[in-house]
């Protein structure tokens, strides 16, 4: 976006004077509104006088926004004081630094410095050899110190972080970029992979401190106020709320690299306590890293917290949240190119096509329901479909989602009708079952038999063939009761398995769970061993679709059931289809679909969403998903109604 004018500023006491460009501000409605909301100023006719209320940096950041509104470049007049001169010098240095970071991102690093970085990793991270794009990403992260990595799942972001950390950690202690510890904030499922990857990168078992629910508040405080620290300090976004002050003290005493894993969890810019608590940590970190494969799932406004975390004292975005929201609604908005250009020096994105992963295959398997299951499904579907409208109030939309979930349950296992729906179900949907629907389901339950669902039988048949051939398989199910029931059925057939879902505990830092073979980490560790006592994992994508890696030993996945949630589906697929697979490996997915049910609609909608997501991920520097990821949205509703009408016509 080319600027067309100049906004000239001068100093006058504790104020900034705007002369040239003042009229443009007066004529621009958005600029005037922004100035009234964020600055203390006086309109003096031939100029606008802005009082510096906090410091020059804060005030100038607001003036830069004004310049953006009126499409002007900022020019410094001759009459600026020393403080403003320092600001101009720092701005110039930051522009030079940003250009160097951009050059590295664009694969034009300074050869000698890049070589020194590679030599440092050979010496300090001897057990892991990064591939070309990983090495470039790690160097970019180490140079910038504050950076985002938006690479797709499976690109090896963890190794990239450890590469940057290895370099920064081994700089001389008096080097401004030196860091002496690493703090990782992420979902519970990410803890084990970070610990495992540390050993695989550095060749030693790390000391690890997990600041989560297994520790008392006092124990966490004692650690964070102590003189020493573990190799890795791990905590969850939810846990930060209760330990924020102690963690701020810890960061003030150490030169820590703070890593936000699955950082899209802090995108809330509307006062969410979890996001706000995390953002407060930024000012005390020596190095800040943001990791997510989906940086803008809802719109460009999701970028706001991510870039304000890595640069808390600089407005690298130069756009506020309302502007970013507005930009998200028009693909032709010329400000989008300017936004990407502004943030380009501080993020790297590796696409799936860059990884040269051998292609995966899939098989859609139609499963005939039993007569009793078919009768129950048809009775519920006929009643519910007659009551569904595309245009509903927010509450009735929750009721509608509850109806769809009941159909999903019966399409796999009618026994699930015996359980009440909670406000947030296993598939992560915000739902509400009406009293009328509950009464109807209660009347239907008497017809539910104890027969093994045909989907279970088919899934077990496929798993049995895979295990007999020496392979391993992950069986994905949306509903917890189906995971538990499938585990029981596999045991009856002599097939050993383990369950990974929300109730599966994580390991404690003190080693008290070391002998517990049923923690998430121990299950994944054993599954990835050649001599594993089980070759089947049953998992729930809502709980464990992120962070775990199973691709080294497992190349098969069976989906007993799926929801409309494309994000969970794609993330679950990436558990076994990631960088590092040998060219001759065939990764295969089996999708079980109950005939003439909502399963068929889900299968088609997920295929459409996945194709759309892949197109976005491959073509856009910042993937903007908007409503592509929406589960149970209006497009899903229309597809359900359309498919139901088509089935009704066949009868």
Report on the architecture of this protein.
The strands form three sheets. The protein has a seven-stranded parallel beta sheet, sandwiched between helices. It has a six-stranded parallel beta sheet with strand order 13-18-17-14-16-15, with helices on both faces. The chain is built from 24 helices and 18 strands. The chain is α/β, with parallel strands linked by helices and 651 residues long. The chain has three domains: 5-80, 2-Layer Sandwich (Translation Initiation Factor Eif1); 90-354, Rossmann fold; 357-651, Rossmann fold. Strand 15 (497-500), helix 20 and strand 16 form a beta-alpha-beta unit. It is 46% helix and 13% strand. Helix 4 runs antiparallel to helix 6 (132-144) and helix 15 packs antiparallel against helix 16. The chain starts with a strand and ends with a helix.
How is the topology of this model organized?
Layout: E1 5-12, E2 15-18, H1 22-27, H2 29-38, E3 41-43, E4 48-51, H3 56-69, E5 72-76, H4 82-105, H5 111-124, H6 132-144, E6 146-149, H7 157-169, E7 181-185, H8 191-202, E8 208-211, H9 217-224, E9 232-235, H10 237-253, E10 256-260, H11 273-280, E11 287-291, H12 303-310, H13 321-328, H14 335-343, E12 347-348, E13 361-367, H15 371-387, H16 394-412, H17 435-444, H18 454-468, E14 473-476, H19 480-492, E15 497-500, H20 520-527, E16 536-539, H21 541-544, E17 556-559, H22 566-573, E18 588-594, H23 598-619, H24 634-650
Parallel strand pairs: 1-5, 6-11, 6-12, 7-9, 7-10, 8-9, 10-11, 13-18, 14-16, 14-17, 15-16, 17-18
Antiparallel strand pairs: 1-2, 2-4, 3-4
